[in-house]
Write a structure and sequence with these properties.
Shape: elongated
Strand order of the largest sheet: 3-2-1-4-5-6-7-8
CATH class of the largest domain: Alpha Beta
Largest sheet: 8 strands, mixed
Bound molecules: nicotinamide-adenine-dinucleotide
CATH topology of the largest domain: Rossmann fold
Distance between the termini: 36 Å
Helix content: 40-55%
Structural class: alpha/beta
Number of strands: 15
Strand content: 5-15%
CATH superfamily of the largest domain: NAD(P)-binding Rossmann-like Domain
Number of domains: 3
Length: 515
């Protein structure tokens, strides 16, 4: 198929099939971009009701001055509900947003193929079904492409343009360009389970569920740590918002579609909640109770800093620099000056022989047993900080105490973390704590996605920032942290847990050795 097979799509009539939450959003965006839009739904009256609702939304936007005067009426005039699919002859593009069912989508596209001209582009908004599979049985499977919007469509900028095995590159490119014209940020993706966002995001939930399974921390603690790292919502409150049934179904589908790769194995914690109807906000109870939601994490009490005779800042790089900057006034207050040991194999502070160690993925107990002495406390990776040397430490920061540690250091370590500018929150002695293990796993999943040609690093970064509002893209974190550091955490997790979940992506390994 060549570009000549589909005419320019800009301004051409667009058919949207399915007038549910996504179809209505897609229709609104297409109409606002200037297309005549025809909306069809198999439920009688649904398309008309959706057009009416879009009109009201636009009136509201116009009243608030968010769109120009007269635009609501102009857009309304471009929107037309259809009573029958047959009325859609002449559409240059059909965007399908019906029920998430392979057979229903195949049947619809077979009908559309017979109805629309040979040059029309067929797009599916499926969030989890293979585009390759949907195209099977079509006379021209090359004109079917994924156009995966995010909810709410008018607000979310990302569109994953998903190519199946037979999708013509020119068709994908035409949808890419059209998405831009609709004010979106498109990213090319290969049709693989979860595409980009739903795949790379899995560890955000999975690592939290793993921590909860082994009782390392309460949901409030995990949420606070990841919010402090810049995530807009913690994983527990986010799963409650998405709905545990939906989140569990996506995890299951990615797991099954990857031939039950243990890396994607769902969690007993979540299955139990789904089985019990604790679905989150919509059922009134998930990790939190609603409408109250999560209560704020009470700041933990800690004792005052005791006098110290010697403080040494170990390690190099932005986190060591920030630690040195934060420690200087604290030491001055104690009447001493901190020294530096930049060449150390670890990053953190040594205070009268006791250690406050930046996590390298190992438990505090392992670090202590590996020759660091009994008094070891590990602290989590302050992700927000690592991009800005000299910036204050992140707020909530997880720490864990080695079981061997003495009572004095157990009490003094959180006092030091607080004096350095963060709100220390205690965790069971767990490898990689909260942020380090989560971010390392997000980077690892993104690396595998790139290895498998699902997307480019730039595409993954844009997708995660725009599709799920991450504070940075996985490859941005990687460039700040460095492949050896990420691999170190993953290897420590792998050595601790065994199994497939923490295996290091070959792409990352190659990155670390520069090939
Ligand atoms: P929805 O249930 O709100 O709407 C689906 C609509 O399609 C309903 O109005 C239904 O009557 C209609 N429909 C079903 N079968 C039809 C058919 N054969 N012909 C015509 N109309 C039909 O669902 P939704 O949340 O809008 O999801 C639609 C699609 O978008 C699904 O494939 C879903 O996976 C995908 N998606 C959803 C989201 C989301 O957050 N909801 C995000 C991205 C993609």
């Amino acid at each position: 198929m060549t570009t000549s097979l589909h005419p320019p799509l800009q301004g051409a009539p667009v058919l949207v099939v399915g007038a549910g939450i996504m179809g209505a959003g897609i229709a609104q965006v297409a109409a606002q971009a200037g297309h005549p839009v025809w909306l069809f739904d198999m439920r009688e009256g649904a398309a008309a009701a959706a057009c009416e609702q879009i009109g009201k939304t636009l009136d509201g936007l116009e009243a608030k001055g968010r769109i120009a005067a007269g635009q609501a009426q102009a857009v309304r005039a471009r929107l037309q509900p259809l009573a029958a699919l047959e009325q859609a002859r002449g559409a240059a593009l059909a965007v399908e947003a019906i029920v998430e069912n392979l057979e229903a989508k195949r049947a619809l596209f077979r009908d559309l193929e017979g109805l629309l001209g040979p040059q029309a582009v067929l797009a599916t908004n499926t969030s989890s079904i293979s585009v390759t599979a949907i195209a099977r049985g079509l006379q021209a499977p090359q004109r079917l492409v994924g156009m995966h919007f995010f909810n709410p469509v008018p607000l979310m900028k990302l569109v994953e343009v998903v190519s199946g095995l037979q999708t013509d590159a020119a068709v994908a490119e035409a949808i890419f360009e059209l998405s831009k014209a609709w004010g979106k940020v498109p990213v090319h993706a290969k049709s693989t389970p979860g595409f980009i966002v739903n795949r790379i995001a899995r560890p955000y939930y999975a690592e939290t569920l793993a921590l909860l399974l082994e009782q390392a921390a309460a949901p409030q603690v995990i949420d606070a740590c990841l919010r402090a790292a810049g995530f807009r919502m913690g994983p527990c409150e986010l799963m409650d918002l998405i709905g545990h049934d939906t989140n569990y179904a996506v995890t299951n589908s990615v797991y099954e579609a990857n031939f039950f790769d243990k890396r994607f194995v769902p969690s007993l914690v979540q299955r139990e909640m789904v089985d019990g109807g604790l679905l989150g906000r919509k059922s009134g109870r998930g990790f939190y109770r609603y409408p109250e939601g999560a209560s704020a994490l009470a700041p933990a009490a800690h004792e005052a800093l005791a006098p110290a005779a010697s403080v040494t800042v170990h390690g190099e790089g932005p986190i060591a620099e920030a630690l040195a900057a934060a420690a200087a006034p604290v030491c001055a207050g104690l009447g001493i000056a901190a020294s530096r040991a930049a060449g150390s194999a670890w990053t953190g502070l040594a205070i009268d022989g006791a250690r406050l160690v930046l996590t390298d993925g190992r438990c505090a107990a392992e670090i202590a047993a590996d020759g660091a002495g009994a008094d070891v406390v590990v602290f989590d990776r302050p992700v927000a900080l690592s991009s800005a040397p000299g910036a204050p430490l992140a707020t909530a920061l997880a720490y864990a105490v080695a079981p061997q540690a003495g009572a004095r250091w157990r009490a003094q370590a959180p006092a030091w973390l607080a004096a350095l500018g963060c709100a220390p929150v205690a965790l069971a002695d767990t490898p990689g704590l909260v942020v380090a293990r989560t971010v390392a796993m997000l980077v690892n999943e993104a690396a595998d996605a790139v290895l498998q040609g699902v997307c480019t690093p730039e595409g993954a970064d844009a997708a995660m920032k725009l599709g799920v509002n991450y504070p940075a893209g996985p490859f941005e974190w990687l460039s700040r942290w460095g492949a050896p550091g990420v691999i170190g955490v993953l290897q420590a997790l792998d050595a601790h847990y065994r199994g497939e979940r923490y295996r290091v992506s070959p792409w990352l390994r190659r990155q670390a050795v520069g090939c």
